[in-house]
UniProtKB/TrEMBL annotation:
Bilayer-crossing regions: 866-889
EC number of the protein: 2.7.11.1
Protein name: non-specific serine/threonine protein kinase
Membrane topology listed for this record: Single-pass type I membrane protein
Signal peptide coordinates: 1-22
Location (main, coarse): membrane
Record domain Disease resistance R13L4/SHOC-2-like LRR: where: 68-168, 673-818
Gene3D superfamilies: Ribonuclease Inhibitor
Domain Leucine-rich repeat-containing N-terminal plant-type: 28-60
Cellular localization per UniProt: Membrane
Highest taxon, organism lineage: Eukaryota
Length: 975
């Protein structure tokens, strides 16, 4: 009864409202009340005004036919009451910030032809009721957060022309029922999580013009049935997991303008039939596993403007008859294949070419002199091939050239002065070649230059005095050349400079004070030159410096001018003559991770402010004159991996907190004045690779926790006051390859367990201790050992014959012990000094033969023996000299390698540094971009937008098909 009453009442109310305005405005007011409208788009929606005059409302014959509230800044959920507007033909709520699901009631809008809900934050699944919208022609709901499978009910929309479901989270496979949509012209499924096959039923969409399903997880072969979609103009299947070969049937798509299969797993040859696609403008087959030769000819693909075949396994040469004179080809990108042969002269007929990328192939020979026939060229990318000869001066005529990438070839000769004509040139990368001569002054006329990278050539002479004319310069990388003379002061006027790398040259002089103008500078590396003098104090003004490497020069004076930036992450001043204390101002760089100040003349103690370096990873203060204790504050540097303080005058005991530095890999406190015990807590540093406490006054026993350092490679406790036995637990340090315990007061016998350290190679040095007992025969297991020193102990008994297995040994010292008996024959080649001072009880070569030693007792040597011994001594010492010379040469070579790698980012020690070296070599950041194709915006070509700008209006429209050609096909690519 109450229900009926209520119903009656509401009908009356509705009737009254409707009566007042004679239409459905009451429902619209209800709609308004459910939306949040901060910008007041629905302001004039009021009962006093005819609804047909309300913003966004369009009436026809007094009926509301269209409601358009797109781009209105609306939030809230889609009002259910919309279904009441039964005359509605168009509903556009796109580009707002609506949330929630699509109300299933919308399925009742029987007259709806256009439903646009794209670019909101809608979620949930597509309601099945959508299939009831019998009149629907356009359904665009992409760029939302919809999930679940695409409902097959969509296939009931017999009138559907446009279906946009891109940029959501749809999963499952493309419903086979899609083939029922006979009038579909545009199907956009990009950027979802769709998997499975492309249904062969898609061939039912006879009118399809635009099919984009890039950036999903589609797999299997590309269904050949696509070849029957005669109207298809755009086919974009980029970035899926499609495999098999490219179906020949695609060559039937006579209207195709855009074909992208980029980033799949397609294999086999490129079907030669694709040459029939005479309307094709863009063909991108890059990043697949295609093989065979290039058989696509621009002479047949007459409309082609972009051909991208990069990142495949294509072989053979670039076809000779590739281009027509009337070609409109603008992009030819064939990078990272296995193409060989020389630069094809025929390519020069592609005179409309803007971008040519042949990088990372095996092309060779000289560059053709007539390169200037490519008169439109903006980017010439030939890096990482085997091109040789000189740079043709004609390149100077390419007046549109913006980037020139010739790095990683075998180019020789000079930089042609003609390059100075290139007013648009922004990037010139010539690194890793063998070019010579001076850097021409004319190059400084290229006023657009932003990046110069000439790393690793043989350029000599001065840096052009006029370099300051390059006002746009951001990167100047001249490392590893033979440049000499001072840095021209005008360089300070390149005020946009961010990276300056002049390391590994023969540059000299002091830094010009104009450097204070380089306020954008973030990286400066000058290592391995002969720069000298104090730093200009105005360098303190450079507030953006992140990486400074001035190592291996002759700078002097205070470090202070380098501490003005709060952003320093790496400071390497190794091997200069800097003096004075470590400035406290350094501590303002909270992100400092590498600090290398070794081999200077620094004095004073470590500033207590170092406690703020929570990011510190590498600190090397070795070879200075620093004093004081190692501050407890360093215990905050929890990321410390290398703590190198050797050869200073530090005092005090070894701090317990060292045990809390879990990342510590290298601890070198040697040659200081530390004393006291080695705390057992050190055993917690389980990542420690190198522990060197050489030449201090450490005393007491070696803690057995040393055995917990199971990663240890190097243990050096030489020249201290350690006493007691060698801890047996040391046998757990299985990775030791260098063990020095010499010059202490160790007692007891040599533990048998030492024989388990089978990685020992560099040395086992136990000399100058008080070790007694016999040499354990287990030491014969140290097969890799090259040097063994047990001299000056109190060892007794025979030399175990098992030591004869030490075939790698080239240095042995057992002298000054109480050993006896026969020297194993394998040791007969070692010098007398290896065995001397053993109470004359050892015998056999190189000492007297055991027989004689028995017969003659302490008898004299015969004349012939004397001669023999003299000859032996002469011969062995010559040999030793040669070996030493060889070793020194090796060490010197290694040192050079190491010192170079050390200096890069101020990194040293471990293997990763070689990699860092490599990466710095190419820190020429463009180099990286190059490899990932970022430069060509291949991703945008592939219809990808980054998540970041997902919501920006341009990303959902213009970014979809990049490159100029794509304008028209873009209109078909709708979310
Ligand atoms: C108002 O809505 C009803 C359905 O609720 C519909 O039958 C009627 O035609 C509409 N009238 C106008 C003027 O739009
Ligand atoms: C809705 O209005 C916007 C302008 O605000 C227009 O660009 C868009 O095309 C309209 N939608 C429809 C479906 O007409
Ligand atoms: C699709 O995603 C939903 C969650 O959004 C999940 O429950 C469902 O199992 C997924 N289906 C497939 C086929 O992966």
């Amino acid at each position: 009864m109450a229900g009926i009453l209520f119903l009656f009442f509401s009908v009356i109310t509705a009737a009254v409202l409707a009566g007042v305005h004679g239409d459905n405005s009451s429902w619209l007011l209800k709609v308004k009340s459910e939306l949040v409208d901060p910008s007041g788009v629905m302001e004039n929606w009021s009962p006093g005004v005819n609804a047909c005059n309300w913003n966004g409302v369009i009436c026809s014959n007094g009926q509301i036919v269209s409601l358009n509230l797109s781009w209105a800044g609306l939030s809230g959920t889609i009002p259910r009451e919309l279904w009441r507007l039964s005359s509605l033909q168009t509903l556009d709520l796109s580009s707002n910030t609506l949330t929630g699901e699509i109300p299933s009631e919308l399925g009742q809008l029987q007259n709806l032809q256009i439903l646009l809900l794209h670019s909101n934050y809608l979620s949930g699944m597509i309601p099945e009721e959508i299939g009831l919208l019998k009149s629907l022609q356009v359904l665009r709901i992409g760029n939302n957060m919809f999930s679940g499978e695409i409902t097959p009910a969509i296939s009931n929309l017999n009138e559907l022309r446009v279906l946009g479901l891109a940029f959501c989270q749809f999963n499952g496979s493309i419903p086979v029922e899609i083939g029922n949509l006979k009038h579909l012209t545009s199907l956009d499924l990009q950027n979802n999580s769709l998997s499975g096959l492309i249904p062969k039923e898609i061939s039912g969409c006879k009118e399809l013009q635009n099919f984009a399903a890039s950036n999903n997880m589609l797999e299997g072969v590309i269904t050949p049935s696509l070849g029957s979609l005669k109207s298809l103009e755009v086919l974009n299947l980029a970035n899926n997991s499609l495999s098999g070969s490219i179906p020949v049937s695609l060559s039937n798509l006579q209207n195709l303008k855009y074909l992208s299969l980029l980033g799949n797993r397609l294999s086999g040859q490129i079907p030669i039939e694709l040459n029939q696609l005479s309307k094709l403008e863009v063909l991108d087959l890059s990043r697949n596993k295609l093989s065979g030769t290039i058989n696509l000819l621009n002479t047949q693909l007459k409309s082609l403007t972009a051909l991208v075949l990069s990142d495949n396994g294509l072989t053979g040469t670039i076809p000779r008859n590739f281009c027509l004179n009337i070609s409109s080809m603008q992009q030819l990108l064939l990078a990272r294949n296995k193409l060989s042969g020389s630069f094809p002269l025929e390519l020069l007929s592609c005179s409309s070419l803007l971008q040519l990328d042949l990088s990372d192939n095996s092309l060779g020979g000289e560059l053709p002199p007539f390169l200037d026939k490519l008169e439109s060229l903006t980017d010439l990318v030939l890096n990482n091939n085997s091109f040789s000869g000189t740079i043709p001066p004609e390149i100077g005529n390419l007046s549109n050239l913006e980037s020139l990438y010739l790095f990683g070839n075998r180019m020789t000769g000079r930089i042609p002065v003609e390059l100075g004509k290139l007013q648009r040139l922004e990037v010139i990368y010539l690194y890793d070649n063998q070019m010579t001569g001076e850097i021409p002054t004319e190059l400084t006329n290229c006023s657009s230059l932003k990046e110069i990278d000439f790393f690793g050539n043989h350029f000599s002479g001065l840096i052009p005095k006029t370099i300051g004319k390059l006002k746009q310069l951001v990167l100047l990388h001249l490392r590893q050349n033979d440049l000499s003379g001072p840095i021209p002061p005008s360089l300070g006027f390149c005020t946009k400079l961010q990276i300056l790398a002049l390391a590994d040259n023969k540059l000299s002089g002091s830094l010009p004070s104009t450097f204070r103008f380089l306020s954008e500078l973030s990286t400066i590396t000058l290592y391995n030159n002969s720069f000298e003098g104090p730093l200009p104090s105005s360098l303190f003004l450079l507030k953006n410096l992140k990486i400074i490497n001035f190592s291996h020069n002759k700078f002097m004076g205070s470090i202070f001018p380098l501490t003005g930036s709060n952003f320093l992450t790496a400071l390497d001043l190794t091997n200069n003559s800097f003096s004075g204390p470590i400035p406290i101002s350094l501590a303002t760089s909270r992100n400092l991770s590498r600090l290398r100040l070794a081999q200077n003349r620094l004095t004073g103690s470590i500033p207590s402010e170092f406690s703020q370096f929570t990011e510190l990873n590498f600190i090397d203060l070795s070879f200075n004159s620093l004093i004081g204790e190692v501050l407890p504050q360093l215990s905050n540097c929890k990321k410390l991996e290398h703590l190198l303080l050797k050869n200073n005058q530090f005092t005090g005991v070894m701090p317990l907190w060292l045990g809390s530095l879990k990342e510590l890999g290298e601890l070198d406190l040697s040659s200081n004045n530390f004393h006291g015990i080695v705390p057992k807590e050190l055993g917690n540093c389980s990542k420690l690779l190198k522990l060197s406490l050489y030449s201090n006054n450490f005393s007491s026993e070696i803690p057995e926790e040393i055995g917990d350092l199971t990663s240890l490679n190097v243990l050096n406790l030489q020249r201290n006051n350690f006493s007691g036995p060698i801890p047996v637990k040391i046998q757990q340090c299985k990775k030791l390859y260098e063990l020095r315990l010499s010059e202490n007061s160790l007692t007891g016998s040599i533990p048998v367990e030492l024989g388990g350290l089978t990685e020992l190679q560099v040395i086992l040095d136990l000399s100058k201790n008080l070790l007694a007992g016999e040499i354990p025969s287990s030491l014969g297991n140290l097969m890799k050992l090259e040097r063994l020193n047990m001299s000056s102990n109190q060892l007794q008994g025979d030399i175990p014959s098992s030591l004869g297995k030490l075939t790698s040994l080239h240095k042995l010292n057992l002298s000054n012990n109480h050993l006896q008996g026969q020297i194993p024959t394998i040791f007969s080649g070692f010098p007398l000094t290896s065995f001397m001072g053993n109470d004359h009880r050892l015998c056999g070569p190189p000492l007297v033969s055991c027989l004689e030693s028995e017969e003659h007792g302490k008898g004299r040597l015969s004349n012939s023996q004397v001669v023999g011994i003299v000859v032996a001594i002469v011969l062995t010492s010559t040999l030793i000299c040669l070996v030493m010379l060889y070793i020194m040469l090796r060490i010197w070579c290694n040192w050079r390698k190491v010192s170079i790698s050390n200096s890069d980012y101020g990194i040293g020690g471990t293997d990763q540094n070689q990699q860092k070296k490599e990466s710095e070599k190419k820190w020429a950041f463009k180099g990286e971009k190059w490899r990932t194709g970022e430069y060509w915006k291949m991703d945008s070509l592939a219809l990808v937008t980054s998540q970041d700008n997902k919501k920006s209006p341009s990303s959902t429209t213009s970014c979809i098909l990049n490159l100029k050609m794509a304008q028209d096909s873009m209109e078909h690519t709708l979310v």
